[in-house]
Amino acid sequence: MPADTESVKPRRRLDPGMPPPYTRGMTEFSPATDVAAAAERAHVLAQALPFLRRYAGATIVVKYGGHAMGEEHLAEEFGRDIALMKQVGVNIVIVHGGGPQINAMLKRLNVESTFIDGLRVTDRAAMEVVEMVLAGTVNKYVSNLITRAGALAVGICGKDGGMIRARKAERTRKNPDTGAIEPIDLGFVGEPAEIDVRVIHALTGGGLVPVIAPVGVDADGQTYNINADTVAAAVAGALHATRLLMLTDVPGVLDRNKNLIPELSLADVQARIADGTITGGMIPKVENCVEAVKLGVKGAVILDGRVPHACLLELFTEGGTGTIVRR
After folding, report:
1. What pTM value is reported for the model?
2. What is the DSSP letter of 77?
3. Where are the domains of the chain?
4. Mean pLDDT, to the nearest integer, of 52-72?
5. Per-residue pLDDT at 53
6. Which fold has domain 59-325?
7. Please, what's the b/e burial string for 215-248 (b: 16 or more CB within 10 A of its CB; e: otherwise)?
């Protein structure tokens, strides 16, 4: 064979979606401002090293939804942040919601929604739409965000592999006329009864990012719509995750002066609910965090998903940005 065989080998064709190969020019900075910017980036990475080591190999469950999902630039940043965390060795599991998308599709298909005390009654027609949107459109959208950013994400729902065994949710309300506590029927609204983590472990063990739609199934094969926060807490507990990150539309839990409370113990949560500091829609979010911690999660954090790089700021900086609930 000729001595220059290597030089005549056909060049490997690059996937146009892949980054270009390294060249010397990539590290050559002529203006001083480029050197300063590179030095700042290096400083940030050095500062993050202890946190990168802390979470390498750890399991982090992220509940994703709200404005962070609806705004395109935030959604793309979220995908890149998840890909980055996967690249540095974090086992990421995503649970997503999709309330606005469900509302839009119900309206588009002229399927009426009924609410009781602010809770959606999910009849059979609505359940078909919920499953189509959550396990279809939204699930694949979120998976694609992460995959395009460089990590391989796989969209699944709780029905896949019997991952989320559901039971019908039981709710009550006080009759305004008699004062009696009465049960209310929300239709096919469920709650997690059991989480089978084998499907999740199979995906994370293969280097993939599971993206879970909060749809479950009962022992009779009936499909149920489940609140995404509740599913995220149950999944995080079943995995004994190091962190559960609940992305919301507020900075975290606020005190009476509207200042962020950086940390709450389980006892603190009960006291803050009792004295009226934690009210309204924040109560179920905090209660889901409490449930996750009781199930074995080391810390559950409520943080503002509208803040760019919210997950990275929470995990890889001193102090974090939201409210952490832990024992």
Report:
1. 0.85
2. H
3. 59-325
4. 87
5. 84
6. Carbamate kinase (3.40.1160)
7. bbbbeeeebbbbbbbbbbbbbbbbbebbbbbbbb
Query: What's the alpha-carbon Rg for the chain, to the nearest Å?
Result: 23
The 3-state DSSP class for residue 62 equals strand
Residue 150: is its pLDDT beyond 80?
Answer: yes
At residue 68, the pLDDT reads 74
Q: Quote the CA–CA distance of 182 and 318 in Å, as a whole number.
A: 48
Identify each DSSP E strand in 12-118 by its residue range.
Answer: 59-64, 91-96, 114-116
Angle of helix 282-294 versus helix 266-274 axis, rounded to 10: 160
Which residues are CB-contacts of 127 (< 8 A; sequence separation ≥ 6)? Answer: 187, 188, 223, 224, 225
Look up residue 267 and give its two tokens.
Answer: 């006892």
- Mean per-residue pLDDT of the chain: 87
Q: What is the dihedral of CA 19, 22, 26, 27, to 10 degrees?
A: 140
Integer Cα distance of 316 and 46 in angstroms: 11
Min mean pLDDT across 24-38, 135-149, 190-204, 252-266 is at 24-38
The residue to which tokens 């606005």 are assigned: 100
Q: Who contacts 111 (Cβ-Cβ below 8 Å, separation ≥6)? A: 125, 126, 129
Residue 70: band (very low, low, confident or very high) from pLDDT cuts 50, 70, 90: confident
d(Cα 102, Cα 191) in Å, to the nearest integer? Answer: 18
The residue that leads in pLDDT, 17 or 243, is 243
Give Cβ neighbours of residue 182 (< 8 Å, ≥ 6 apart): 172, 173, 174, 175
